[in-house]
Structure formats: structure tokens, C-alpha cells
Design brief:
The protein is of the alpha+beta class and 289 residues long. It is 22% helix and 33% strand.
Length: 289
């Protein structure tokens, strides 16, 4: 772990304390990488994939790129794709973290639930060497029953999970919560189905400069009201994509605590070697019941 920086953060004061010259140096390197490759459609970053357990090439391109005063920047968070396992930056960190968490589960009576089932991430986690039961689901529509199997795909609604209370050891959410219409209910449901001491591991697009979360859309009795211009992210079971309801700020930690979690923190991580870069720092969240 010498080639990675990981900080556990519970509030903005702790977050501000870790900002130093190293952070600015990282951003400068990221900008230089973008500038030096601006004429390339794709380029590669040599590194080590924690999921594959070997040296690999990470693919970087301009998909989902964005403009800055210094010029166009790649979406490092969503790209830096391992050419072997196919996972991107944030997915690889989550996968490596989840594997370590599952390795610490003793005995056979353990369950791990993912808010996904048809993805490469899910397939790789199912293939992991663990005694835990690993299962996942997709959201297939409001007219489906939670827990229902449709063409071998399990339907679940994050706002009304079919699992029994205190029945899951680990829940994994990869960029799902920004798409649920009621984040407080979704977090409360996750807390309900987790066992005491169980953990929710999740990633979301996080806005570290925002104290409060911005709600982009509202769902009321089946009708969506857009409070800001519509924004969609990719969805493996929908060509249209998934509507973004929230731009999360620091009160996301408060939402987790209000939902019943006893300990909530953010992992701030960075590693050039492992391909965990972008905006000087990457984020993942852990909420323990």
C-alpha cells in the first residue's frame, strides 16, 4: 500500500487539513498529461491493476471530457480503463476494497448485495474467492415487484428492498444514489437490511466545494419535476440512461447518519501507479450500521 494515499475523512475540517502542496502537484501533473495528449484520441498510462493483480496498461480517452480554463480535461474518474479487466478508475478501487472486506468475513453465513447485476463489475465480484453469497439486482421499472426475477435479472427498488431486515453483511453501490428520487429513504432501506456492524460501500459524483446537496429533480406521485436542466448518466438496462436527481455535497454524510448509520466516513484516495487519479483526489464512502 506504499504506492497509494488513503485518508479517512468524517467532516470538512478533516478534509481541509489534508490539502497540501502534494494535492496541487497532483492536479498539475493531471493537467500536463491532458495537455501533452490533447491531439491523441486515446493514450495509455502504465500501471498496476489491483483487480487483475498485475502490471497493465490503462486506457484514457476524451469520453465525458470537460472544459476548464486551462483547456479540455479527460474524465479521469470515469475512464483510466484497465485493458484486461475492463473496469474504470472508481470501479477498480471499489472492487479492490470490496475484495479485502469480503476476505475479512469469517464463516459461511454471509451475504453481499450489489445494486447491479448485468455489469462487468458484478461478474468479477461473483468470481471472487469468497464463501459469502454474492447477489445483485437492477432497477427494471416501477411496475415490477421488488425481488422479482425477469429473464434471470432480479429487480430491486432502492426505496423498497425485498430483503429481510438485518440480513446483509455488505452492500455495494457504484454511482447509484444520485439517481434515486429520495436519498433519505434509500439510505434508510440500506441500513435496515444490513446486519449490525454491516457496511454500505458506495460511490457517487461528489462535489467537495458544496456544503449542501443540490436537488436537480423531484418525483411526486409518479410525476418528475425538473428543478434544473435534465442530466442523465449511462444505464446498462436503459438506452436513455438514468436521470440525475442529486448533486451531492457534504451533507451527504449527515443523510447517512440520519438514516441510522453509527459511523460514516469518506475515503480520499490517490495513486498514479494504480490509476486512481483525477482532480487531485478520488472519493468513496463507507457507512457502518
Amino acid at each position: 500500500m506504499d504506492n497509494i494515499s488513503i485518508e479517512k475523512i468524517r467532516n470538512t475540517s478533516e478534509f481541509e487539513a489534508i490539502f497540501d502542496a502534494a494535492y496541487l502537484d497532483r492536479v498539475a501533473v493531471e493537467k500536463m498529461m491532458a495537455l501533452s495528449n490533447r491531439k491523441q484520441r486515446t493514450w495509455h498510462l502504465p500501471g498496476y491493476c489491483e483487480v487483475c493483480g498485475k502490471a497493465v496498461r490503462f486506457l484514457i480517452d476524451w469520453v465525458n471530457s470537460f472544459e476548464t480554463p486551462e483547456g479540455k480535461m479527460p474524465s479521469y474518474r470515469e475512464r483510466i480503463i484497465c485493458e484486461d479487466c475492463g473496469l474504470n478508475n472508481r470501479q477498480r478501487f471499489m472492487a479492490a476494497f470490496l475484495r479485502k472486506a469480503m476476505n475479512k468475513l469469517d464463516g459461511n453465513d454471509h451475504r453481499v448485495y450489489l445494486y447491479e447485476q448485468v455489469t462487468q463489475f458484478f461478474k468479477l465480484m461473483q468470481a471472487a474467492k469468497t464463501k459469502a453469497e454474492i447477489f445483485g439486482s437492477e432497477y427494471l421499472g416501477h411496475d415490477k415487484k421488488p425481488g422479482e426475477l425477469i429473464k434471470n435479472i432480479r429487480h430491486e427498488d432502492a426505496l423498497s428492498l425485498s430483503m429481510a431486515s438485518d440480513s446483509i453483511d455488505i452492500i455495494v453501490s457504484n454511482d447509484v444514489y444520485e439517481h434515486v428520487p429520495d436519498i433519505s429513504t434509500a439510505l434508510a432501506e440500506a441500513c435496515r437490511v444490513l446486519k449490525k456492524g454491516g457496511r454500505l460501500l458506495f460511490s457517487v459524483p461528489f462535489h467537495a466545494s458544496q456544503d449542501t446537496t443540490t436537488q436537480r429533480a423531484r418525483l411526486d406521485q409518479g410525476v418528475v419535476t425538473h428543478l434544473l436542466p435534465e442530466r442523465y448518466h449511462g444505464n446498462p438496462v436503459s438506452f436513455k440512461g438514468s436521470l440525475v436527481f442529486y448533486d451531492f455535497g457534504w451533507d451527504l454524510l449527515d443523510f447517512c447518519r440520519a438514516a441510522g448509520f453509527s459511523d460514516v466516513y469518506m475515503l480520499c484516495y490517490y495513486s498514479m501507479m494504480y490509476g486512481y487519479i483525477g482532480e487531485g483526489m478520488q472519493y468513496m464512502f463507507v457507512a457502518e450500521k
